[in-house]
Structure formats: structure tokens, C-alpha cells
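Hi C.,

You asked whether I'd gotten around to modeling the 217-residue construct. I have! Everything is below, sequence then structure, no commentary in between.
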Amino acid sequence: MIQLKPHRESFYAISRKAPRLKAIVVCEGQTDTEIIKEVAKKLGYKLGNHVAITDCEGIDNIPIVVSSLAKLSRSLSTLAIVIDLDDKEASERIESLINSLRSHSIEITDPKLLNQKVFASNVARGEQSFNIVVTLMGLEEIPVEKHSIEDHVIKLMALKGSINLTSIQGIKSSKQLIDNYQKIAPLINKACEENIRSAFQPIVSLLKLIQEQTALK
């Protein structure tokens, strides 16, 4: 899986990489991309150079990045979007994202639930089309006000027995407990596969889906 950085790389550099990509994973921030890459590495997903991942430096930039990458990549079959639930219900979060994409002239179909927190849509592109897969991160079982990808790290810690969930009751976000990626990578690397699959179930489902869909092309 290669790393794209649309906000830092030149248009020329991006345009050289994008046309050969079969799948692109678009995340809100850098922590999200690093967690996904670590989970993929830990579980042995070898997605190769035809799959890329990038962060958008904020959810508001997702429609612009999605639109740009979709135009550049001629062989794209799957474009995945990974976002946090925050303080919203899954249906609210999905509806808001779909409306935002449509406001940027992205012709996306209504999403269908594939499995827990993973939704699929389709985007027309001339005579061709590609899949959009939206994965929502955050766990209602973690007693915080706003739910994020860091909730899954907290669950991993709880499965290991290194944190008690009752001790974090009332905290605004799991981000307050894990303030940088350097603290997360060792947790993932040292965890057993069973706990990784349990704690990061939406990411595991997404990686499996990308592997299956890109293998078909």
C-alpha cells in the first residue's frame, strides 16, 4: 500500500501515481492512515502498489480530494472513505457525507449497509463506474462523548487488560488518552491477531473488501 499526500505532493507527482491505482483509501487525518497501515501489516494484507492511502487533513477536504483522485485514476475500482462517527448516529454521518460529495458534483448512489459500520455506494464516471466504500470509526461501548478511530485503540488496550473502561467515563474523546501515533504503533505491533480483529473490526472488513475487489480487476 503506497502513501499519497495530495496537500504536499505536486499535481505532477500525484498524476504519475494515480492512473495505475485500483483502490484508494481516503482518511480524515494522519493518525487514521497510520493505524490502517499498521493493522494491514500486522494481519498480513499485502495490497501492493495498486492500492494507495491518503489523509485529507480534515473531513471538510474529503470531497475535493475524492473528486480529484477519481478523475486522475483511470483504473480505479474502489475508493474507500474512512471517517469518525464523532457525536452523530451512523445514519446522520453517512447522510452528511453523501450530501457533501453530491454538492461537489460527484454522482453517488444511495449507500447500502454491507456490515457493521461499512457502507457501499457507486459513482458513475462516463461509461465506467467505481465503488465507494464508507467506513465509520468509533465505538459506542467506549464511554466518551465523541467517537473516533482512537476508540478502537482503547478497546485493544481493554482487551489486553491495560485499561479499565469505567475509568474513562465522561471523557470527551479517546483522542485525549492517545495524543499521537507513536503511542499507538507499538500497541498494534505487540497485540495478538485475535484482539486486533476484534478491536478494529471495521478496518479489517474494509481491508478484506479491498483485497477481494482489486483481485477481481
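If it helps when you're writing up: The two ends are 17 Å apart (CA to CA).

Thanks,
B.
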